[in-house]
Amino acid sequence: MTAVMGPVDSPPGMARLEWLRSPLLPFAGLVGHATTVFHINGFAPFIVPVSESFGWSRSITTLGLTAILLMQAVTSIPMGFLVDRFGSRRIGLFGMISAPLGFALISTATGSQANWIILWLIMGAVAMPVQSTVWTAAISNSFQASRGLALGISMCGASLAAALFPWLGAVLIRNFGWQKAMHYEALIWIAVSFPFMFLAFRGVRDKQPAVVRLEAKSLEPGMTLKQALRSSVFQRMMVVGTVYTFMIPTMVVNFIPILTDGGMDAVQAAKLAVSIGFASIIGRLSSGFLVDHISATRVGAVAFLAPTIGCGILLAYGATPATGMVIGALLGLAMGAELDVFGYLSSRYFGTRYFGSVFGCILLSLTLGSGLGHVGASMIYDATGTYRGFMWLTAIGTLLCSLCFLTMPRPELLPEAQNS
After folding, report:
1. What is the pLDDT, as a whole number, of residue 194?
2. What average pLDDT does this structure show over 149-172?
3. Three-class secondary structure of residue 212 per DSSP
4. What pLDDT does 188 receive?
5. How far apart are CA 6 and CA 353, in angstroms?
6. pTM, full prediction
7. Cα 104 to Cα 108: distance, rounded to the nearest angstrom
8. Are 120 and 106 in contact (CB under 8 A)?
């Protein structure tokens, strides 16, 4: 079977044809990816007021995040199979309503820890249809020559979430209290996002009749999940994904508490958190463009060094407006490259025929790392009264991830995927 062509081998004008065929799809993916992390970035400004309201430790307050992320990790592979079977559109549109409503439901918490966990498990269930696989699969199947840039634009949604939701939440909390703020934030997002998604989120496979879609899919190269699991490249991606996301999303979610614990006003800290979002937009677009033209593994290795530098600066100089801006920017750049690189490499190494299930497994490692990271950071904080220990862990861990990426082979379809 013919291998998927790399970006340098694409016919002239192919990228232009892809954009003419699906001009709004990457931007629909952007809105979708913002919804993927709505409950994560959206919860950041609620950590302190919820802890104070119920008299909980940070570990208890963030335990819901851990529960939902672990639940999403477990369901990421089944969701990938569903995307392979039914396509992305129907699944994604349902999730655009169910996920924000699940976030609003958390505001009904009674102060019981059992009730808190149950509400977050419900949140995890209704957020399953907005997992990154849904949006990434639609774009990977619709773009080849310009896949990196299209994915980069799509994944700017997480950057938009990091910039918008903490600020919006902080403003709503200050004006209405944390419980009403959750209601309003969810309803605002549904009203803004769903109409656009209904019109714009339709991948190439979603435009085809079922029979044609299945026939076209059968001709694509790509590994099955079983084949991918035997690949040493896949195994390295899983390990790096778990280690890296153990640290970076956790640092982003705890960015406001880290700064406020250092003496900064909560609203000022929330404003500085905007730098994460804007920097990650730059990181996503630049990494998306670069992986279409140079080695994606080298792009990842360089980007993953940014948190090492940022944590070093914060540890050395403390929480000030200047250091907050710098580390926010560096975290954003690294966060911007993360999903771009993993999504792009998954499609290039393992093909698109079974992309949903294969990337779902990669997503399992990314989500597992995020879920465990919140536990680790909160335990370190509760034991020491500071996040310094976790920042040291982040600086060392991201350095090791960068070095591991340098050992990865050239991003091109592996032989097993070509012969499937």
Report:
1. 96
2. 85
3. helix
4. 95
5. 16
6. 0.70
7. 8
8. yes
Own/partner pairs, 192-200, CB within 8 angstroms, 24+ separation: 193/31, 193/34, 193/35, 193/96, 194/93, 194/96, 194/97, 196/28, 196/31, 197/28, 197/31, 197/32, 197/92, 197/93, 197/96, 198/93, 199/24, 200/24, 200/25, 200/27, 200/28
What sign has the CA pseudo-torsion 263, 266, 271, 274? positive
Q: What is the DSSP letter of 203?
A: -
12: Cβ–Cβ under 8 A, 6 or more apart, which residues?
Answer: none
Listing DSSP states for 285-315 in one string gives HHHHHHHTTS-HHHHHHHHTTHHHHHHHHHH
CATH number (1.20.1250.20, 1.10.150.450, 3.40.30.10, 2.60.120.330) of 20-418 reads 1.20.1250.20
pLDDT digits (tens, 9 = 90+) for 9-27: 555 577 788 888 888 999 9
Residue 251, token pair as written in the block: 């640092």
Residue range 349-374: average pLDDT? 81
- Name the residue ranges covered by the structural domains of the chain: 20-418
**Distances from the Cα of 327 to the Cα of 315, 331, 356, angstroms:** 10, 6, 34
Spell out the residues 6+ positions from residue 97 whose beta carbon is closer than 8 angstroms to its own.
Answer: 190, 194
Residues 27, 351: Cα–Cα separation, whole Å:
23
**CB contact at 8 A, 336 and 280:** yes
- pLDDT tens digit sequence for 26-58: 999 999 999 998 988 888 889 889 998 999 887
CB atoms within 10 A of CB 25: 26
H or E stretch covering 250: helix 232-253
Residue 178 token pair: 């944390």
Q: Cα separation of 45 and 404, whole Å?
A: 34
Paired tokens of 8: 């340098």
